[in-house]
Design a protein that fits this description.
Largest sheet: 5 strands, mixed
Shape: rod-shaped
Structural class: alpha+beta
Strand content: 5-15%
Helix content: 55-70%
Radius of gyration: 44 Å
Number of strands: 5
Strand order of the largest sheet: 1-2-3-5-4
Amino acid sequence: MAVTLPRPHRDDVRIAVGGLLGGLLVWAVSVGIRPHDDPLVRWHGHWPILVPLVVMAGCELLRRTRPRTGLLIGVAALTVDTLTQGNLATLVMFTDLVYAGVLYTPPAVARRVLWISGLMTVVATVLPVATLRKPEALLIGVAVGLVAFTPAATGWIVRNHRDAADSARLRAEQTALLAEMDRVQAVTAERARMARELHDMVANHLSAIAIHSTAALSLDDPRTSQEALGVIRENSVEGLSEMRRLIGILRDDSGDTEPAVAPTLEGLGALVAGARSNGLDVTLEAAHAERLPAPVELAAYRIVQESLTNALKHAGPGVVTVVLEESDGALAIAVTSPYGHRDGPRAPGSGAGLVGMRERTALLRGTFEAGPGTDASGGKVWSVRAVLPLGEGDLE
């Protein structure tokens, strides 16, 4: 099975061609590294110099794709080159192979090349000095250091800088991803909050309009129709006012996304009075401190408001009771309405009101439950019960 070598990088091709042409130029002018009578020279003449030169240029083609293979072959070519008069281009290309062998190989191989080149430099410095006992012997260690250790150390430094840059870029990408996730979550939370506000502010008025318009259309009584139209007009005006305020909040670019005046428990009386004007028989019992945390008051008001809206749409004949009681560091809310056959018209429901009440309670780390049950006399009722802790909470 034939092995296909990866295509060399275009820069490596340029380096190989440049090194080969430079080496041929040096060879043409007969400039060698070592003199003709050097005892290390075993192959005299100009032609033997070309073999390691061509091989080293070929190794440059592997400096990125197969750096370890290129370095091993380069070591063999440099060994052969030492037996000739040598070529400066061959030596320079070998230093580049050492550099690439540290920069482009796996970390374990890069560390091994660095340690081996350092060890070779130390041995080439100590051994000749100890053997020859001449100061000139230090030049051998300097030469080996320049050829082997210096390019290896340079490659290691560049590799560390690249790794640090890659790590910084990865951290930046992760930070950007987290920021985008936070933005999406913030947008989702804001959309959910605005959906709750829109539903709680407008649903009560629209439900009353739907019920009274149905009654006005179904009853052939001018007086009843007149009263129904009056209720419809009142609720439409109030609903339009609430819608305008909410649209103003959405269009406000000041960063203030809270209603201008958030409803409080002081407004429960007016809320109950409005429910009575819409036809509900409502009683209110409230026993709590004059001022509670603003998120708790807003959540309690909205829960009572939505419960009365549901009672207006679905409750049977009878009394709707609203009870608020503060005890054990929490505000307990209980709204019960008759459950069963309804004589008058119904308004359609989507179930979003229960979802909104449950979300408001969960944001304050409270408890919420809603469902059918029985009262003290055994009659069927629909109960909404919520317990809102008075401690720190984050409603919006």
